[in-house]
Structure formats: C-alpha cells, structure tokens
Amino acid sequence: MKSIEARVTDHPQLRGQISAILPARHDNVGLVTSLSDSPDPTADHPHTEVDQVAERYYSAIVEASPLFATELGLDVRQDEYDDLSPAGLEANYRRTMTALDELDQAMPADDVDEVTVAAMRNRLGLEAQTHDNGYDLLTLNGIDSGLHWIRSVYDAMPTDTPEQWETITRRLHAVPAAIDGWLDSQRASAAAGVPPARRQVDLLAGQVDSWTAPGGFFDDYAAKATTASGPLPDDLHSRLADAVQVAADGFRRAAAVLRDEIAKVATDQDAVGITRYRLASREFLGSTIDLAETYRWGQQELARIEELQRETASRIRPGATVAEAIEALDADPAYQIQGTAALCEWMQSRADEAIEALDGTHFEIPAPARRIEGMIAPTHDGGVYYTGPSDDFSRPGRMWWAVPEGVDSFTTWRELTTVYHEGVPGHHLQLSSAIAQHDRLNSWRRNACWTSGHGEGWALYAEWLMADLGFMDDPGHFMGLLDGQSMRAARVVLDIGLHCGFDAPAEVGGGLWDWDKAWTFFNRHVSMDRGSALFEVNRYFGWPGQAPAYKIGERTWLELRDAARAADPQGFDLKDFHTRALTLGGLPLDVLRTAMLK
Prior knowledge:
Elements (H helix, E strand, L loop, with lengths): L3 E2 L6 H6 L31 H16 L1 H7 L13 H20 L5 H22 L13 H7 L9 H12 L1 H17 L6 H15 L4 H7 L2 E2 L2 E2 L2 H32 L8 H12 L5 H26 L5 H10 L4 E3 L1 H19 L13 E5 L6 E5 L9 E5 L7 E3 H11 L4 H9 L7 H5 L4 H17 L6 H26 L14 H11 L4 H13 L6 H19 L6 H9 L6 H9 L1
Parallel strand pairs: 1-6, 5-7
Antiparallel strand pairs: 2-3, 4-8, 6-7
Helix pairs in contact: 2-3, 2-4, 4-5, 5-12, 7-11, 8-11, 9-11, 10-11, 13-14, 13-20, 15-16, 16-19, 16-20, 19-23, 20-21, 20-23, 23-25
C-alpha cells in the first residue's frame, strides 16, 4: 500500500470557516520586514496586550467552531456543528475584522509579540482576502470538503464513557442541519460565479456512497460502539443506532443533491486559473512565490530525485532499473507485514524508537510529547494523517492509516519514511513542541496558527534529516524516502502547471494540461497502485495550491538551515537550530524566514 498523506491537522474547518473581508490597512500579507531576533526559547514572556488580542480571538473561534474544539480536545458545544452556511461565514468575517482592528491598537512588548502580530496579520489577512473574493464558500472536493469535516469529527471524539456516547448521539442528530448549511454555501458559490468542478462533485458523491454503504463508516461505527469498561447500555445503544441512521440518511441525501442539483451547475473546467491559484498558494504558504520559477524548479527537483533513485536501484540490485528495484523490494519478505494489527504494532515501535534515539541528541522533546499512538483509521480512503494532542496532552498525538478496503499486505520499505513524517521528528514533534510552550506562546500561536508550507515542509525536512542522520542507510528504506519525494516533486509540476495554464512538459505532448496528460505524467514518475494514484491526481485537481506546499516548505527549511550554518560555521549547532525553530510554533513562511534570519 502506498501512503497518501492528508493532514487532518491542516485545520480545514478553521481555514474554510474563519474568513473575512480585508480592508486596505490590513493588506500587508507577505510584507513582513521588521521582526526582531527570534525569541530565546528559555525566556519567559509576559501576558501582553498582543497576547490578550490573540487570546480573545482564539476563544471566539473555539466558541464558534465545535469542530475545532473537538480537534483541540476541548469540551465546547460537542453535540453541535459549526455554521457552515453563508451566514456562518459572514459571522466569522466579523470576528476576524474585530481581531484585526484590535491588533492595530495593541502595542507589541517584545520580539515574541512582533512575531505574533506578523503571523496574525498574515493568517487573518489571507482568510479575509479569500472571503473578499468569495472563494471561501466553495469547499467541495474529494479530500477537504465540508462533508469530510462533518464526518471526520467522530474520529477524534472521546468514547470512554456512556456520557461521551450520549454527546456523540446528540451530535449525530445534528448532521442533517450541518449538511444543509454547507450545501447552501455551495449553491451560493455557484450563483456568485464560482462553481465546483464536475469531476470533484462526482468524486465526493462517490465517497459519501462508500461511507453510507452496508459495512461502511456508519454501519461500522454503530457496530463497534463500546466504552472503556464494556458495551453500551442497551437503551443507549438503541438511541445511538437511531442517531447513526439519521446521520447516514443526511449524507445519502447530500449525495443525491450533489448528483441531481450541484452537478447541473458544475463546470467541466478543472483549472481554477492563475488569479485564484495565487491567492490559494499564498494561503497555504504564508508567502508569495514566483509561480513560473517554482514550476521550473519542480521539474529540476524531480530530475534530481530520479537520478538518486537510479543510483539507489543499483545498490538494491546491481544493474536494476528503478522499477525492477521496486519490484524486488515488494517481493522481499524482509519488508513485508501482514494485517492491519501488525502494521499498527510496527509503526508504533518505529515511532517509539525514533523518540528514544533523537531526544537529547538532535532535539529537545517535551516530556508529554514522548507519547504517540499509531492508529488504524475508521475509514478506507487511502490516506495517512496525523491528529495533534489536546492542549493538556491528556489525549496524545496520533498517526492514522486509512487502509483501503481489501488491502491486508504492507511493505515497510515504503512506510518507514511516513512514520518519520507523521511522528518524530515530523508533525508530532512539531505540533507538540508548540503546544508545550504555555509560558511563552499564547493559545492562538500554540494551537491555531497552522500554515501548510511550514508544517508539511517541516515534515519533509524531517524525512531527509532522518536519512542524513543514518536512520535510512538501508537502501530499501532510502528508496522509500525517494519514492515519496518523487511524488512530492511531481505534484509541484502538475498542480501549478494545471491550474496556472503553464505548458505541460514535452514528455506528455506539451500544451495545456488536461486529465490524460496529468495521469500519464504522474504515473511515469511515481510508483503507486491505480487506486492510490487516482486519489492523488484527483487531490491536485480539486485542492489547488495545497500539494506543492510540501516541497516549497521543505525548500524554505533547508535554506534556513544552510543560512544559519553559513552565518556561524564554527558555532552552528543542529539541536539549537531545531529548538529555536520549533519553539516559535507554526508560522507563515515569510514570518518564519524573518524571525529565524534576523
């Protein structure tokens, strides 16, 4: 099985919901020029005016978003859903505008505050511009739609007690109303001239069919309901079953609306165009890039990685092509695992080993972050993702594998690099390090300031770092790293080229990208089964700007490390560099760059 990462901790509901109109005085996204030195991670930070603004905003968005509260492990309106309707988006705009206005009046007290101000103006400003352009209404694709948010919240809800199952039962009854609000936003987007792509409508409807089919998510959820001390009481189990049916019926109706109504106003055009793409790219990166230069760089990076693959193939079997080496690895019993239980045990062991080896040497791992859980996801979409710990670490960070139906055999040569990406030193260490900064960072900085370029870039940086540190000297495991890296480089090319209208490479005929060229290009450069490849290519078509953030963010992290080493060749210390970077928390790339290089 090929791992397809799809970060739940991308705060999709926060990103899609909290958008606002940006007035001219706040239009300074990407123009951070005046940050002081990055903060000393050992210093205390007083609770300042800027922190108070951030805390008020954080409290407001948590109160307004029960989905976000679930992600954080907070007991706030857990039997409800966000208002996903146009009215709900407008209310989020007003909250954002209030925070931006208050931020204008707050006086930064120190360098920590200056970073907070820059980060809030970047994040809230981009949410605001998205709302201003009417792009926040449309959240319809095969990986990060409102329907995904409504369903996936149950993966994170606690299930230890009958009282918690009572809460789940009430939330299941709220599903139809949440879906109605989301559908209203999709209708409003189409009416405003921003229709969904028909390909994504069909894809999402098919996914909903799988969730509601016999033996799908909802059947399985009801069948496996239990508490920490045993089965649910009969009356509660009966009410839960009724609630699951209400929710499933709501999703079935949503699939029918998608096919019978939304599809009729959808467009056959997959590309969103360079104007929409620029804004989406800035949102995922927290930085403005030269799209044409990055498109060329993606092709160069892909060629570099493929040369490394060819060199590694000869280490696996002298004279072998990359395809032959991969075939040999897939057939090698030393890299095979049978069954999801064995997969879960294996990834837990690898994650624990990485924590033990890295703590105190190349990283300072906060004590609560030494706990991570490997999980098999309750869905079968093919994704691998990470969900962060609660603010008090009572709920640990978790790595999830959404194993496709019928898949029962796994190859560890592909998957070891994914454990490092999702666990330590990847997402788990990254998010846990920020959450642990209670004395220095306000709640918004610790829990809500997420940027894909920063987060996913760090996770790719973590994969390469583990190779540099000798953890992937085995040529099979190194080929697994390169296999994933070739995919990340290929999608920089495909995603930017498709949506911005750049000429496709000559190898697929040049001219404008279309599905056939994208499919051919992807499968020439990525080793993947057909189902997983369909998932990936559909992802790029339906979620513009997100997939390239991985490699672009990694590029930034490597540049920052090289710059720090060049500035002080004798005094450079890798652990110190990592500590400074991670204690800043998640930041837009422009803000990170300035904070680290000042």
